Target: DNA primase small subunit PriS
Amino acid sequence: MGAQIFLHNLLQRFYANTRIGGVPEISGREFGIGEFGKKISSRHLSFCSADALNAFLREKAPFYISCSAARYSLPVARPMDAKGLIGADLIYEFDADEIMTSCKTSHDSWKCSSCGAGGKGRLLECPQCGRGAQVEEWVCPECLGETKRLTLRLIKVMERDFGFSQGLSVNFSGSKGFHVHVRSDAVQGFSKAGRLELLDYITGTNLSLAPLGFSFPRGSGLCPKRGAAKGWARVLLEGVEEAFSQNDAGALAVMANVPYRNAEKLLKEKRAIMNGMERGILLGMNGIRAEKIWKPLLLSVADLQKLPVDRQTSTDIYKIIRVPDTIHGSTGLQAKTVSLQELSSFDPLKECVVMGGEEVLVKNALAPRFYLNGKWFGPYNNDSLSLPEYAAFYLLARHKAEVA
Ligand SMILES: [Zn+2]
Ligand SMILES: [Zn+2]
Model:
C-alpha cells in the first residue's frame, strides 16, 4: 500500500469520529482543500452550515482544509471581487522557521542540489559552491515553546493596547506554529492600509523614540511618566525595569552599550533610576550624557519586544488559512484550538497527536531525533522499523519513510 492511501484511511477514520465545530459565520466563508503533497488544490468552496462541512469532511477526508478570514455575500463567486466582501477577521501567524533558536542546529539540515554538499543547521547558501541550499526544517519543544511565548505576547498586545479581547481565538497551526484569529466586530471593516498600520505597530517597524515621548534635551533624558505611559512607551519602560530587575551587569552592559563597570554603577543606582522613570526622568551618570546610555538601552528593549509575525498572512484579506481543529496533512497533527488560559502550558507536539498508537511497519525512515506525543524518536538513517501510527504519519506525510 502506498503512503497516500494509508494516510487517507487514517484521515477518514479521524473525520468519521470527530466533529469539527469552530468556524463562526461559516456560510459567508470561502474554503479551499488540498491533497497529498499540495496544500491548496481547489478553492472557492462554501458550506452553509457546520453540518454540511462535517458531512464533506467525512466523505472526502482532505489532507488539508482552509477557510477565509473574510466573509462574503457570495463566497463561491470568482474572481475575488465578485464575492462581495462583508468583513474580515485579523489573522496573525507565528512560524517556528522564522524564529532563530539554538535548537535549529540539532534538527535542521541543509543540502546543496548543485554540488551535493550538505550538513546540519540552517544554511541558506552552500559554503562549497556558493549556490542556494535547501533547508529541511523540523520543530521541537524548544522552538515551538519560543513561538508560543511570542503568541502569548501578541495576545497581551491585542488585549491591552487595542482592547480586542472579544473574539480572540488561538490554535496550533498543525505543523510549525500558531494562528491567532481576532474576530472582534471592531476589526471587520479595517482596510488593507489599516491592517498594515496595525502590523507595523506589532512588529515595531520604523519605531523611533521621539514620537513615543522620549527626548534628550541638553544632556538630560525625559520619558513619559511610568504610570501614564501607553503602548510602546509602556512596553519600553517595562522592559527597562525588567532589565534592571535581572541584576545582571553583563547583560545590562550589552543592552546599554556601556562598559561593565558602568553597568554595575547603574545597577547600584537602580532605585533612583526607577523613581526617576515614575517622574518622567531618565537619570544619567556622572559625566555621561543620558542619551548615550538610554538610547541604546531603549532600542535594545524594543528589539526584544518586536513580534515577528508573518506579514503576508496578516495583510492579505483574501487569505485562506487552516480550519481550526482539522488535521494538517503534512504531520497528522490536529490544528487544535487552545484556550488563552491553557496556552502557556500547552504542549502542541503532545496534545495535538490524534492518530492512534498501533504499531506500523515502515522502511527507509530518515529523520533527525524528533519529539512527538511526549516521547523522543530517532534519529533514523534509512531504517526499517515499527512506529506508532501517529509517528508513522508524521514521517510518511513528508516523504521521510515508506510503508513497508
Ligand atoms: Zn554546493
Ligand atoms: Zn527546535
